[in-house]
Structure prediction request, 856 residues.
Amino acid sequence: MIISLLGPLTFRIKLIAPYRSCATITTIFSEPNKFKSKFDYSYVPAVLRDIENKWKNKVDGYWNNVVSKQQTTSDTKYVLSMFPYPSGQLHLGHTRIYTTADLLFKTSFLCGENVVNPMGFDSFGLPAENAARINNQDPFVWTNSNMKQMKSQLKNLGYHFHWRESTSDPSYYRWTQWLFLELFKSGLAYQGISQVNWDPIDCTVLADEQVDSDGKSWRSGAIVEKRFHKQWFIKTNAFAEDLYAGDDIIDTGHWSFILAHQRWWIQKPNGYLFYLTMSENDKSGLDNILQIFTPYPELFCTPKAFIGISKQHWLSYGKKPGEIVGQIRNPFLKSNEKIDIRLIDDENFPPSTQATLFTARETHPDETKRSEVLNRASSLGLGGYYTSRSYRDWLISRQRFWGTPIPIVHCKNCGPVPVDDQDLPIQLPHIDYSKISSFTSTDISSPLKNFAPNDWLSVECPKCKTDAIRETDTCDTFFDSSWYFLRYFTKPSDRKPFDKIRLRPVDCYIGGKEHSALHLFYARFITHFLQSKGYLEFREPFHTLLMQAIVKARTYKLNGKYITAMEAEDRKDVEVTFEKMSKSKGTGIDPDLLVQQYSSDAVRWTILSVGNPESERLWDSEEKEFGPTFVFFHRILLTIEEYLAVKCGQLKTKPLDAGKYDEIIKDFSKQTDHHIFNVLYSICSSYQIRNGTSTIHKLINLLRANIRNDIVHTKEYERALASLIIMLSPFVPCFASECWQAFTSQLKANEYCKSYGFDYSKNVVEQKWPKIIDSNFMYIVRFTCRNENGREEEKKRIKIPLKLLQSWSVNEIRNLFKSIDEHIEWIEIVKNCSIVIRLKNQSIDIPPIRDEFVDA
Ligand SMILES: [Zn+2]
Prediction:
């Protein structure tokens, strides 16, 4: 009768007696045979949503509490994602970065590390201003409402960050202004006339790097026009030699790729760059800095020398080749002589140079004179930086409203004068946006110049107290973001930009590959600068880089136009490719919708379990993406259900071969250790997250293979299952919480669970990362050193039994390798996971130090 009512499925199940959890706590497993009876996985999303409804607030509560109580110290592990721009809409590419950061943060915390994962917004920039023009809305209001929306999206996905300021908060940009003034006072920020790239659509000046190889703007796509304009520059050339060398870069993760890119950009230093001031009384009538590049600075001391400029130079306007265009005082001659500036034919001009030294006579390198010139240049602040002829200083001023105001006052008597520190921040004034929206200017001028109130614009000169006017250009957003990683060990209320004592380089910096060149370069420059001024102890800001490739979606094109998947269905003439996700191609995916439909756990797992971070993530149809995820959840649900049935005595198991019992159990336990280690290694050391998710699958296979034999009754099986659920918690916290509750409801706290470090009275998110119990388990120790090209290479790897490592402190490791201690440059320890010993040079032999150490 039952068979006919419920169909053949029930018949198959009736072969095993139906089992029911004997626990009193109600969980998803309380209903008998809930999961056994399912042969498709379509039920999984509903189960996951139920689980999420039950656990989300509890899990959030726990992690919010952890985050709020955490104190940063000098040994804090520092995980950081690149701050997003508040466009208002989180996209799938973002979720990949933040899920990885969240996983790294929570896994490290479970391992007992003091770890932080700060977050804020890189919130100045053009889109807010464009939106303000179109909608007549205050950029501040637009930006804040977008930030609010994105914060809620981040929360829905289950991330827990240490929230800090955004770059448009006055408490933050007060220190961006401080940083600008430090550069100004050090002679590294200056105004120079230069040929600039004018974007006629966005009506703004662009940096060279923001113009593509076709001469188009990176943002608007407009053909860029060349104009001359006075701009603010930062002398990045001052550190070109050090930035090129990258001596302090520890070559892990993606650094070699990024450094190669940055070196290509800087080019190998091959000469010296000087900055001479053209005085106001000069015939050219321009008060400006003249940059001169020369491989032979000693030519400054040759009486017949002159400065040659190319046709591209701003001074050449309206002049003929051979003509003298001006004179400048030669600061390297005691007689105060002037040196001619002459326009030179292009064919006689060294490539990539606009001004260099020539002489009428043949000269020979003179090292004594060269060092005299360089010393004098250094003492007078005239440069003399060793750099390449093609590398240009950083243009940081923008004729924009929504940016950090440059804290300078222009005075007729004193020139550009820095604002007093006590007057910072110079806050953006309130302006009327209805005027801006109808205002178009073909002039290079900022909206602040045209629309800021008079009492903001007109000020007293801090030096001579006469009438002066404020600088109306603002900083490029690359300047705002060039130092936020230094800010996040301090509080917004702190009266200092950062905490030198506690601050350390970011241990793992996670971001999109496409942002790697510019942002990472400027970040390095600023850190080098602050270290040179004694503000920081280190000069390379990021230890490991994890640059993630973009998420691409399947796109459909018909006759060159994008169409939706639905429109493409059943058509044969459609071109199918994978391209960067975008709304205009019909492929923008809202993570919120995915969370609503499948739960945040399912989205997190799906994002992480396919492809390693640095490879492009090709996002297929939802069916194909989530299919394997549902099988994964189903297999775990099944395992827990059957385990509970065993514990209640409702499921019989097969006996083990009595003669091999010990051996089988030992092997099972070894495999468990191996998997626990590999999951941690993949997340925290190699950052190959996908290898971690495949290892979790292997552990599930091991558990499923033994669920119907007597191993399931052992403490070793209990440990393996507990370890699985704990390791799942940083990936899929709600799901792991439900599994843990059901699992522990059947178990009493016992001696061995304590020895494994589990606490069954607490939720899974409060557990510690599972321990490896085999004291003979072998850990890999890698020895590395730099090769002739400065790249880090592995010299040797050995294996050391766990019992010898014990607490894994640097001192302990130094003790183990006493005989080569003096050759050790640095030791990197990822807790309970990996050790890298960096040696000072390649020629050091690593002797067989102890019998227990074996070659790996
Ligand atoms: Zn003045």
